[in-house]
Design goal:
Strand content: under 5%
Strand order of the largest sheet: 1-2
Distance between the termini: 23 Å
Largest sheet: 2 strands, antiparallel
Helix content: over 70%
Shape: rod-shaped
Structural class: mainly alpha
Number of helices: 5
Radius of gyration: 26 Å
């Protein structure tokens, strides 16, 4: 394998480490922070004391209002969770697209030959980095935030596969095609 191939593999691995860092980091922040601040504001409905106004019992009405406010806080919590997921996906996707397209343009301009070893190492390191990203993410979140981890990993892995890895794996040199004839 030539020096160019080794350099491409090293740069590809550095990019994948950066992408994995983002997916693991955002997943860990969702796990660590959560949205527990709104849960502290919830009304303990069963702890509402009896409310009597002019001899009438208004306790069920006040408990209903407590349940409505808890439902509203749950809706706000769900909205904040979805917005944080969408924002994280957009950030990871934009960074992945910019760096992958830039790397592809530079690599395609410089490619003169792609050896079979480079193709093999590209495939192995790509699959290995995805598995490493998932493994580290699962361990760091104590196996609790699986869906965001899968989503964030897929957000960087699929565009990088389509933009760069596919280029390397399908690249054929003139010497390879003439030897096959």
């Amino acid at each position: 394998m030539k020096k160019d191939g080794i350099l491409r593999i090293i740069l590809m691995n550095l990019l994948m480490v950066l992408f994995s860092y983002f997916s693991i980091g955002y997943t860990y922040e969702i796990f660590r922070l959560g949205i527990n601040g709104l849960r502290e504001l919830r009304v303990p409905v069963n702890a509402i004391p009896p409310v009597n106004v002019d001899g009438q019992d208004f306790t069920p009405l006040f408990r209903l209002l407590g349940m409505v406010s808890n439902g509203y806080l749950s809706l706000i919590e769900l909205t904040a969770y979805c917005l944080s997921l969408i924002t994280s996906v957009v950030v990871i996707l934009v960074i992945t697209l910019i760096l992958s397209v830039l790397f592809r343009v530079i690599a395609k301009r410089k490619i003169t030959f792609v050896s079979a070893k480079e193709k093999k190492y590209t495939k192995i390191s790509y699959i290995g980095m995805i598995l490493l990203s998932l493994g580290v993410g699962l361990i760091s979140t104590h196996y609790t935030v699986l869906l965001p981890l899968l989503l964030f990993t897929a957000v960087w892995a699929l565009p990088f596969l389509l933009i760069y890895v596919k280029l390397i794996l399908t690249y054929t040199d003139a010497s390879e095609t003439s030897s096959n004839l």
